[in-house]
What we know:
The protein has a single domain, classed as Glycerol-3-phosphate (1)-acyltransferase.
Amino acid sequence: xxxxxxxxxxxxxxxxSPTTSKDASDKSKSTDHMLSLNAKISAxxxxxxxxxxxxxxxxxxxxxxxxxxxxxxxYFVVPYLTxxxxxxxxxxxxxxxxxxxxxxxxxxRAMRSYLGLEIASPLPEELLKAEERNNVSGDDSQRQxxxxxxxxxxxxxxxxxxxxGILHSILPNIASKTRTLAASILFRLPLVRELSLWTxxxxxxxxxxxxxxxxxxxxxxxxxxxxxxIRTTHGKEIVYxxxxxxxxxxxxxKGNVPIVPMYVFGCSDHYKTSHALFGFRLWLVKxxxxxxxxxxxxxxxxxxxxxxxxxxxxxxITFQMKVEGKPTDEEVQEAHxxxxxxxxxxxxxxxxxxxxxxxxxxxx
Length: 364
């Protein structure tokens, strides 16, 4: 489920408070939006089929190559690995996006409708002006770049793959040159790799991100990564940000690219969560980079609960430094504080009107 990268390490993650999902949700205002039973059944089958098909294909190739190495291994696995490892390393370059797929693929449209997913208006004026400039100039060297820093990760980041199509609809000139950093493992899984590439993902390695920025692209980053994912608690708004300074430093080193803070209201409530075996699962995150989320969605499945999901964008932020492109540690630290303040302000500005007035943003 994790369609994002883990930015930095996940050390020193404190165990979440023992508040259960039920307790937290009882305290919070319901943000479910009304859907018919047919709509829920349709979403249930689409979401679960997507995960099941990807899992079945991957397991079939793996097990089949062991049982029938001369058939499955030679004719399917070896050609696929050769193609993805040596012939087409799109994830290490600029990806292989398919905007029409992200925007118009009917299951994605149905999933967006199920979650009521939208990017709140009005958009920041700076983004609208940049969209217009990018449209008029047509010159990549004059294109305005951004780093979109999205919080929180949530139990799964399904909203990311669905958000891609919305960006192509409302900011087409910016979106056409925007890539999303995603975990390297996603590009080793059949079908998952293709879905990731078609929806604008590239590998989350630092050199790949730098290459994309050097090529005039904007980036979508979910800085909290697995450290934030494992701490997700239904009914609470938790972001793992205190130790996440890499994306700020990246922006400052690459020409002071403006960072756009973004918050996804609703994604923390997409699944009921449990923190059972948290210590063991945290060990897996820290040592193996594997996040196992104990969660349940609609009718106990992988389909998220029908929670209205709204993405809000803050004003792009640039930072002060004495030498352009060479920020000191102190300047990065100060810039990080500015971003943290901006994210908290963005959350507090919108939480009341979106039904989250009783919640506080926990920055860890």
